[in-house]
Amino acid sequence: MKYVTLQNGVKMPMEGYGVFQITDAGQCEQCVGDALETGYRLIDTAAAYQNEEAVGRAVRGSGIPREDLFITTKLWVQDAGYDSALKAFDGSMQKLGLDYLDLYLIHQPFGDYYGSWRAMERLHQEGRIRAIGVCNFAEDRLVDLCLNHEIAPAVNQIELHPFHQQRDALRIMRDYGVQPEAWGPLSEGQKDIFHNRLLSKIAVKHEKSVAQVILRWHIQRGVVIIPKTVHRDRMEENLNVWDFELSEQEMAAISTMDIGHSEIIDHHCACTAKQLNGWKIHE
Ligand code: NAP
């Protein structure tokens, strides 16, 4: 496992385990336990995933020293704003059953996220969060936040995979020292990616799976990955990506797969702003 050093000096594993859509508490606890046994040390959850309690139980039950773990959770749109964010953070920490958090992310660029950011800066200064960041911030919103902060966003977690490569977004993040993290690193399996001809050919050459080739491609672009699977054998497979290297030609060939937009969600669409503002996770 490799680590990246965030701009505030905190070390973050380059690969972690994501728990989106693992809503059954028993299954989530089992999966996170399996992931930790397999060797994952970064766990990515969110208040909106409704599984922070299960994640917390698995983390606390793992017997792994707290300082070896890197736990991320996220603030939902409904809780945007200074006071609401402070309250939501306390709620998440209570559910996780942890004393401090490694990374707290604004989940969506909607609502009063400047108010949220000020609250997160305070929590960071109080030592309750080691690093703060955002998700789904397009270039304009990210730069605006970078220019209007006390503490810079350490991470921007965005949709990234061979069909949606976001080169401009990565360039801006590099310019501002923001670490990119891929959600949907395996494109959530869309467009039959695991049977893609180009990726399959590269996989055969390296005696690896298509999933491993995709994950390796992210790592070589300097992107942190958090693939999700409920299967223990796939957890192992997805972690086994540190012993081979894609050539420049293979990286260039994969770059031709970009379709230049998301087929999962359009953050620029008014309908998305409306939908996510209306998505309530509590009373
Ligand atoms: P993903 O990791 O790209 O893809 C997960 C899908 O791939 C699942 O259907 C899984 O199926 C399958 N899969 C995983 N490993 C595989 C393998 N080796 N071979 C074949 N199939 C495999 O999608 P994601 O869950 O959306 O993204 C990962 C994490 O990013 C999430 O869990 C979450 O933590 C985070 N996320 C964040 C946001 C955000 O807005 N910030 C949005 C989405 C996701 P099985 O489970 O059946 O194996």
| Mean pLDDT rating | 98
Strand order of the largest sheet: 3-4-5-6-7-8-9-10
CATH homologous superfamily annotation:
NADP-dependent oxidoreductase domain
Computed over alpha carbons, the radius of gyration is 18 Å
Strand content: 5-15%
Molecular structure report:
By secondary structure, the protein is α/β, with parallel strands linked by helices. It has a single domain (12-278), classed as Alpha-Beta Barrel (TIM Barrel). Helices cover 41% and strands 15% of the residues. An 8-stranded parallel sheet has the order 3-4-5-6-7-8-9-10. Strands 1-2 form a two-stranded antiparallel ribbon. Residues 18-20, 44, 107, 135-136, 157, 183-189, 194, 211, 226-231, 234, 237-238 line the site of NADP nicotinamide-adenine-dinucleotide phosphate (NAP).
